[in-house]
Amino acid sequence: MAKKKSKREYVWLECVQCSQRNYRTSVNVAEGTPKLKLKKFCKKERKHTVHKIRRK
Ligand SMILES: [Zn+2]
């Protein structure tokens, strides 16, 4: 039997400047939502901005 202890959840990566949700990713939420900030390309603004995790 396979042990499944990882608690992964699908989240959005949301642009902090225009609140556009550009990316879907999965994170480990076993110890709460990770405070991740990533530089990603925002399709709306067509430039790289900081994106943060947004849980549903
Ligand atoms: Zn944006």
How would you characterize this protein structure?
With 56 residues, the protein is mainly beta. It is 0% helix and 54% strand. The chain has no helices and four strands. The chain has strands at 8-15, 21-28, 37-42, 47-54. The protein has a four-stranded antiparallel beta sheet, with no helix packed on it. The radius of gyration is 13 Å and the shape is elongated. The chain starts with 7 loop residues before the first strand and ends with a strand. The relative contact order is 0.36. The mean pLDDT is 91. Zinc ion binds at residues 15, 17-18, 20, 42, 44-45, 49.
Briefly say what this structure is:
This protein is mostly beta strands and 56 residues long. It contains no helices and four strands.
Strand arrangement within the widest β-sheet reads 2-1-4-3
Category from helices, strands and their pairing: mainly beta
Oligomeric state of shown chains: single chain
Bound chemical compounds: zinc ion
Percentage of helical residues?
under 10%
Low-confidence residue ranges: none
Number of helices: 0
Described by strand count, sense and barrel closure, the largest sheet is: 4 strands, antiparallel
- Which sequence of SSEs, written as H and E, runs from N to C? EEEE
**How would you sum up the global shape?**
elongated
Which range does the strand content fall in? over 45%
The span between the termini is 31 Å
Radius of gyration: 13 Å
What's the mean pLDDT score? 91
